[in-house]
Design brief:
Blueprint (H helix, E strand, L loop, with lengths): L3 H6 L1 H8 L5 H7 L5 H6 L10 H30 L2 E2 L9 H22 L3 H8 L7 H33 L4 E2 L8 H17 L6 H26 L2 H7 L5
Antiparallel strand pairs: 1-2
Length: 244
Amino acid sequence: MPFTVAHIGFSKPIKRLLKKHVDVEALCVASVVPDLDIVLTGSRFHMFSFTWTCILFVLIPLSVLLYYIWRHFLKKPIFHYFNIEEAHIPPNNSKSVILWSLIVGIFVHLGLDLITHYNNYIVITNVFHMDYYSKEGKVFDIILLYIPQLIFSLWGLYLFFRLLPGSMCNLQISSINTTSLPFPVIIGLIASSISFFIFREHSFFFDHIILSATCGAAYAILFYAGLFYFVNEDFRNKYFKLIC
């Protein structure tokens, strides 16, 4: 799907289905791991091959590392940024549950990609029995390229924005601290612009805008987390009130 964030939303129905057998934070973290290469580079081309070898020796270890980074480095500043109160959070799940959840999250992502990404040439010629290079074939090519991705992306974003925030780990979410918005947003816009002009592709303009925006958001989060930890709190409160 063009929206990497939309994959996270599908952690909610998985959590409802499997209940206590999964860790929702691990599901959310792992659901973005297969796209981590394109998120950090802004390029449309994957470095991951999605073979069993890649899943076992790259994606799963990477998901474990990212989960550790989330729990010990990213979670606290993000909660601070959005004024999320950690009230009544249940005890951490066992390591086996977390590992299982990370694996499930990876396969949820790959399953969604399998549904929304396929060889259009084979589908058009073998299923619809059309000439791929005809006018009708090109119309179907565009439909198959964007419609399934758009449907699942909107569904995933709906789940992400409407269902996850209010229930994930029983968090109580207060109003967003708007005074902390400007600077990270500026950093995100700069990163997005750099990504956009470096990896610009005219034939996939829509995808490229989304990837650039996602890349910018990722670097804005990392920058804010670094500022949160490495700038003294008193100094931050005195000189960086607009960003922290």
